[in-house]
Write a structure and sequence with these properties.
The complex is a heterodimer of chains A (239) and B (406).
Chain A (H helix, E strand, L loop, with lengths): L4 E13 L4 E13 L3 E5 L6 H8 L7 E6 L2 E2 L5 H11 E4 L11 H11 L4 H14 L15 H13 L5 E5 L7 H16 L3 E6 L2 H4 L4 E6 L2 E7 L1 H9 L1
Parallel strand pairs in A: 3-8, 3-9, 6-7, 7-8
Antiparallel strand pairs in A: 1-2, 1-4, 4-5, 9-10
Helix pairs in contact in A: 3-4, 3-5, 4-5, 5-6
Chain B lengths: L2 H14 L1 H38 L4 E6 L19 H9 L6 E15 L4 E9 L2 H5 L4 E4 L4 H6 L3 E4 L1 H8 L8 E4 L2 E9 L13 E5 H8 L7 E6 L5 H15 L10 E5 H44 L1 H9 L4 H37 L8 H27 L3 H6 L2
Parallel strand pairs in B: 3-8, 5-7
Antiparallel strand pairs in B: 1-9, 1-10, 2-3, 2-6, 2-9, 4-7, 5-8, 6-7
Helix pairs in contact in B: 1-11, 2-9, 2-11, 2-12, 9-11, 9-12, 11-12
Classes of the chains: A alpha/beta (239), B alpha+beta (406).
Chain lengths: 239, 406
């Protein structure tokens, strides 16, 4: 409602149609996420959380409803304008890391900046800064198959941060990595959140969701529960 | 995203799968190579035929017996019995004829030539001394047919270098005897080689005095042609008309369409030959263009496979903010690099091939710069044309579908 709102979703509905049947993936979902929040969106598979993530990530459009991201209504934008929104306002972290194969970590991190038209020298400096932040400044010229899963995900986080996006959108960020490394990734997220970054994380694992400050439960395309995650965070700290 | 970076990125992507890239390029190499080789082969043929025709003599008009057109049926030229030595003599002596410098009456026939050991089948031409002026024949050793030979009907022959080699090998043919048309002739001269392959080898000819050919060898009163040399090249048309009307009057023919002879200028022959070889060149290029087309389809195929293979990568790039134009440019630049590299190697291959062909067939080596430029342009165009569809397909992938793709 105020300018603190980064994500404002009102009555989002998504219906997938095939010749024979209609599947309602999201039905009248409304919520607001403010700047500086760390939100986990939880739900079993088929609950609609991936669909929600695609809409929040401007990768897909809702069938009806309104989605305002950082003051911009995503509804009537063309494919290229959506690409621009994703580039400037959203930092993606995927389950499968999705780094360019056979390409150095440095070049992977530079990639979104080349799409934003940032000059090469400046882009390289920025990339090194963020790679240092995630502790990979000694792996600049390694390709993605030469580093571990956890390290790949850290490269992806660096890549998500370089354009200082309005939100970081993480889709099952720990789904493909060992638990010890998963905790490192979550520590980085919490650290980023403490520095003021807004993070939205999709997960089906309760103990990963615990790291967030707020948890939105999705079930059958609807919000089942919107709870405060502080308690879980404290539980985690007590472990 | 600047073009140099894009180019370098495409290049590094292409080098990742060298075998596939190489095979895709090979199609274009063969396509461009064959276009260049075949076009230059065609041009070389054209050029050598032109040279050959020009070497037959300059400002040359040829009068052949036989009607140009008789009741809609074209008479076989050269086969008729309408030209006589008298025709040639009056053309030479008449005060009405002002544009002709030299007249060469000729009777030619393919004849078997034998010596004691060997034989060959060649064109035997009965000539007067004027022949050597009109057709620019020079004598390498000995001398040409003289007026005395013609007047006295001597049994002598002047042979082409090809005949000399065929019959006598390396030994001197001067003074040797040959048998032709039932007569034994003494070789008195060998002509200088004019070279040439193709429809009329000018080195594979035997000259005898016209009178000897008519009376003793072939038993004919007629001529197979009269060659005329005009005084200058700009009088060719006038000479053609002048001689034409003169002969019509002599043969008492009032309707020019019923003429019992025909006159060709060398330009006519040149034009006909050029148009024939031009068609030949076009045909060859057409065949080569088909292989280029196949090469282009190969590129499209490879690019489609690449797009499918890199669906996830495309999805990621789009998720990170790549616009359609960037994806299109990326894939187009890959296909253009493929075809352009293929074009480069193809040009080298084509030049090499046409060089080898020219060596083997002993013909001219002609590579026109325009065909090279064209090959470059065509290979780039193929990259754009056949790369467009795959690139378009890549750019239209929806990022979520692409990211989900396994």
């Amino acid at each position: 409602m105020t300018d603190k709102a980064i994500i404002k979703a009102s009555h989002l509905t998504k219906v997938y149609k095939t010749d024979l049947l209609e599947t309602v993936a999201l039905s009248d979902v409304s919520f607001t996420i403010n700047k500086g929040e760390f939100v986990a969106i939880m739900g079993p598979s088929g609950s609609g959380k991936s669909t929600l993530m695609h809409i929040l990530g401007a990768l897909d459009k809702p069938t009806s409803g309104e989605y305002i991201l950082d003051g911009e209504n995503v509804e009537n934008l063309s494919d290229d304008e959506l690409a621009d929104i994703r580039n400037r306002k959203i930092g993606f972290v995927f389950q499968a890391f999705n780094l360019l194969p056979r390409t150095s970590t440095l070049k992977n991190v530079i990639l979104p900046m080349t799409y934003a038209g940032i000059p090469k020298d400046e882009a390289e400096k920025t990339a090194i800064k963020y790679l240092k932040m995630v502790g990979l400044n000694d792996r600049l010229n390694h390709t993605s198959n030469q580093i571990s899963g956890g390290q790949q995900q850290r490269v992806a986080i660096a890549r998500a941060l370089v354009l200082n996006p309005a939100i970081i959108l993480a889709d099952e960020p720990t789904g493909n990595i060992a638990s010890a490394q998963a905790n490192e990734i979550m520590a980085i997220f919490q650290d980023l959140n403490n520095k003021g970054h807004t993070i939205v994380m999709i997960t089906h694992e309760p103990d990963i969701a615990e790291h967030a400050k707020r948890i939105i439960h999705i079930r059958d395309g609807k919000i089942a529960q919107d709870s405060n995650g502080h308690k879980q965070l404290l539980v985690k700290k007590n472990k | 995203m600047n073009l140099i970076n894009l180019f370098l990125e495409s290049l590094s992507t292409l080098t990742l799968n060298k075998t596939r890239t190489g095979l895709a390029i090979l199609g274009i190499i063969i396509g461009i190579g064959s276009v260049i080789a075949l076009v230059s082969l065609g041009q070389a043929t054209q050029k050598s035929i032109q040279n050959q025709i020009q070497s037959l003599g300059s400002n040359l008009l040829t009068v052949s017996p036989g009607a140009v057109n008789q009741g809609g049926v074209r008479g076989a030229s050269g086969g008729g019995t309408t030209l006589t030595l008298e025709d040639a003599k009056t053309i030479e002596s008449s005060p009405q004829i002002t544009t002709i410098q030299t007249v060469s009456p000729e009777l030619s026939k393919r004849t078997q030539i034998t010596t004691g050991a060997s034989n060959t089948n060649v064109q035997v031409i009965g000539v007067t001394p004027a022949y050597s002026d009109v057709h620019k024949i020079a004598v390498d050793s000995g001398n040409f047919i003289t007026q005395h030979d013609v007047d006295a009907m001597t049994k002598v022959a002047v042979i082409g270098p090809q005949v000399a080699t065929d019959l006598f090998g390396t030994s001197s043919p001067i003074g040797q005897k040959i048998r032709a048309g039932g007569q034994t002739l003494t070789v008195v001269g060998v002509t200088v080689s004019k070279g040439g392959t193709g429809f009329q080898n000018q080195d594979d000819i035997v000259f005898v005095p016209l009178s000897t050919a008519q009376k003793q060898m072939f038993g004919s009163d007629y001529l197979s042609s009269i060659a005329l040399e005009a005084k200058s090249s700009d009088q060719m048309l006038a000479a053609q008309d002048e001689v034409g009307y003169f002969l019509l009057a002599r043969h008492k023919i009032t309707d020019p369409t019923l003429a019992d002879f025909s006159i060709f200028s060398q330009q006519d022959i040149l034009n006909t030959a050029s148009s024939v070889t031009g068609t030949f060149t076009t045909l060859l290029s057409g065949v080569a263009a088909i292989s280029l087309l196949v090469g282009g389809i190969g590129i499209m195929n490879i690019m489609l496979v690449t797009v499918t293979e890199r669906t996830r990568e495309i999805g990621l790039r789009k998720a990170l903010g790549a616009k359609k134009k960037i994806i299109i440019t990326q894939f187009l630049s890959e296909s253009i690099i493929l075809t352009f590299t293929g074009g480069l190697f193809g040009i080298v291959l084509g030049i090499l091939a046409s060089f080898i062909i020219s060596k083997i067939s002993n013909s001219l080596f002609v590579v026109s710069p325009s065909s090279i430029l064209l090959a470059f342009a065509v290979s780039a165009a193929i990259g754009i044309i056949f790369g467009w569809y795959p690139a378009q397909r890549a750019s239209n992938l929806q990022p979520i579908e692409a990211l989900r793709y396994e």
